[in-house]
Amino acid sequence: MRYAETGFNLEIDLTRGNIEKVATDPRDTELYLGGLGTNAKLLWDRVPPEADAFSPENLLIFAAGLLCGTPAVGCNRTIVSTISPQTNLMAFSMMGGFFAPELKYAGLDKVVFRGKSEKLVYLYINNDTVELRDAAHLKGKGSIETAELIRKELNQPKAQVAAIGKAGENRVFYASIEQGRSSASRGGIGAVMGDKGVKAVVVRGTKDIHVANPLEYMELCNEVMEYIKFRNDNPIPGVMPILAGLGSPQEMKVHDEKWHTENFMWGNSRTRRKGFWTDEVARDWLTTMEKARTRLISCYNCPMTCGATISMPGLPTYMMKCFTKLTYTMGAFSDLDFGLRIAQKA
User: Fold this and answer.
1) pTM, full prediction
2) What is the mean pLDDT of the chain?
3) CATH number of the domain that residue 56 is part of
4) In this structure, are 244 and 133 located in the same domain?
5) Rounded Cα gap, residues 198 and 182, in angstroms
6) What is the model's pLDDT at position 260?
C-alpha cells in the first residue's frame, strides 16, 4: 500500500487519443518527493533537449503535492509543469483551490499529456472513469464560463475544472490556466495547453487516501494548526501590516496600505507617491472595502482566508486575493472603488 500518494499517474496520448493508468515507482517518491520534484524528473527523462514548448514531444503535467488531500494544513497546491514558450526551458506554476485534492481523491497523483489533439477536447475524470470529450462547443469561451458549462453538461456541480480561455487557445505566450479561485499564471503554461488542443481538465473524486500512522499524523497537523493560530493572534511587531501575519499577503483583511501605496510604483512603474496615504484616504478606502467585501475565503483545508468575495453595486460578485486589490488602482492613478470595479471586468 502507498501512503499519502496514490501510486498512479494518468498518461494521455493526445495524438492517438489513448488513455492509460500507469503505476509509479515508489523510489521516485523517496528521491524526488511529490509534485514539482517528480514532474521535473519526468520532463528530464522524457522530453528531448531539442524539443520546444510547442513540440508534440513536450509534456504538460498536472500534479498534486505529496500531502494534498490529507489533513495537512494548507496542502492544496496543483503543480503544472512543462517547457515554457517564453524561455524554451522547464517551467512550473502552482495554483491553489481544490483541484489537486480532488485529483488525489480520484486515485491519481498526476495527469501527463503528450502529443497534440487534432480537435479541441477536454479530459473528464470521475474516479475510474476517464474520457476525452469533444470541446468544439467551448471554443472561444473564457475559462470561468467554460468551467460552468462543463459542470452543467456533466451534471457534476462539485467537479473541479482547470481550463484555458481565448488566450490559451491562441497560444498567447503569457496565457494562464484558471481553476476556481486560483490560476497557473507563470511561464505561459496556458499556451502549451492550447497548443495541445486541451480546453479543460475536469476531475471528480470520492476515493480515500491512506496515511501510515494516522494518530501521530493528526497530532502533527494539530500542532501546525496551533502555531498558525498563535501567529495570527501575534503579528510580528515592526513589520508592515500586509506581511506581519503568516502565509500569503493578507490584502483582503488589511486596511493599512501606507507601505504598499507609498513604496510600490504607480502608473507606468516610474512614479512613487510618498505622502499619498493620508487619514482621509485611509477612511475612504476602509469604507469602500468594508462595503465591497462580503466574505473571506480560503483554498482547500487552509485557515488563512487570503481571498475574498467582492460585490460592487451593479456588478456580479467575484473573487479577489493578494495584490490584485491594488493592481488596477495604482496602475490607473485612481482610488480603490475604481480598482475593485475594473478588476471585476478583468
Assistant:
1) 0.91
2) 93
3) 3.60.9.10
4) no
5) 19
6) 87
97, part of any domain = yes
Residues 6+ apart with CB under 8 A from 34: 4, 5, 63, 64, 65, 66, 67, 68, 109
65 CB-near residues (< 8 Å, 6+ apart): 34, 35, 36, 75, 76, 77, 79, 100
Residue 135 near residue 199 (C-beta atoms within 8 A) = yes
Neighbour-count burial of 310, counting CB atoms closer than 10 A to its CB (0-12 exposed, 13-18 middle, 19+ buried):
buried
Alpha-carbon gap, residue 56 to 47, rounded angstroms: 10
- Residue 284 phi, psi (nearest 5): -65, -45
Question: Rounded mean pLDDT of 10-16?
Answer: 98
- Total number of domains in the chain: 2
Same domain, residue pair 121 and 241: no
CB 231 within 8 A of CB 183: no
- pLDDT at residue 28, as a whole number: 95
In a domain, 239, yes or no: yes
**Of 214, 224, 188, 181, whose CA–CA distance to 74 is shortest?**
224
Q: Which range of residues forms the domain containing residue 80?
A: 8-204
Condensed to tens digits (0 to 9), the pLDDT of residues 164-215 reads 999 999 999 999 999 987 899 999 999 999 999 999 999 999 999 999 999 9
Q: Are 261 and 334 in contact (CB under 8 A)?
A: no
Alpha-carbon distances, residue 266 vs 260, 321, 329, 334 (angstroms): 10, 19, 9, 10
In a domain, residue 139? The reply is yes
